[in-house]
Structures are given as C-alpha cells and as structure tokens.
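Revision sheet: structure tokens.
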Amino acid sequence: MEYENSQVQKSNAGQGMGIAALVLGILGVLTAFIPCFGLFAIIFGILAIIFGIIGYSQAKKQNASLGLPLTGLILGILATLFVVIWTLIFATAIANSAFDFNAISKEIQINSQDTINEYPLDQDTLDQYGADQDTIFAQD
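Predicted:
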C-alpha cells in the first residue's frame, strides 16, 4: 500500500504562475480600494487573470493542484470588478456634480438679475461711490 502511494508523483506544473497570480490578485484587491490607485489595481488584476489562466491550464494538463492558480484568477477578477465599479461610481458622482454646478450657476444668474432689477443704481449713487473711491485712494 505504501509502495503504491509513493509511485504517484504530484506535479508542480502551474504553481509558479499560480503564485504570481495570487500575489498580483492580492495586490489588485488591496489597491482597488485606495483612491487614485485604480490604474495599478486594474493592471494587477488583469495580470493576475492572465497568470491564473495560464497556471490553471498548465496544472490541469499535468494533473497538478489547481488551488493557487484558481485563487489568483478569482482575486484578479475581483480586483478588476472592484476597479470598474469604483470608476463607474466616481464618474457618476462627477457627472452629477457637474449638472448641479450648472443648475446652481443658472440660479445665481437669475438671482443676480433679480437683484439688479430690484435695486437699480442711479447716477447719484454711482457718483458718490466714485467720490468715495477717490478719497480712499488719496489717503494712501
């Protein structure tokens, strides 16, 4: 019985790619949640997916363990999805704030026009302001 178990050798095929996929997948997931690091996270995620697929196919052909390549592949997919979701949320927030800015700008423009119509400046007020301004600058 012992002799039969020792004859079966387990292959290490795909394990190097699996480790690379796992490390890149972990880095991708961690950097996906850090603002302004989305580009790195997407690169890590895509590389983890590529290495995970290569490692998985190598391990499957050689009847080796599929754990590391599969875990790296899953983490790479998760990292890429997190980055895409955060990018969509950020882009939506920017777009909404741009629309809000346009609405606020129009409201300010309408209110300022109403104020000008409500409190018109006559020539006496303008002359008084001009006289005060000359006096202020003359004192310097």
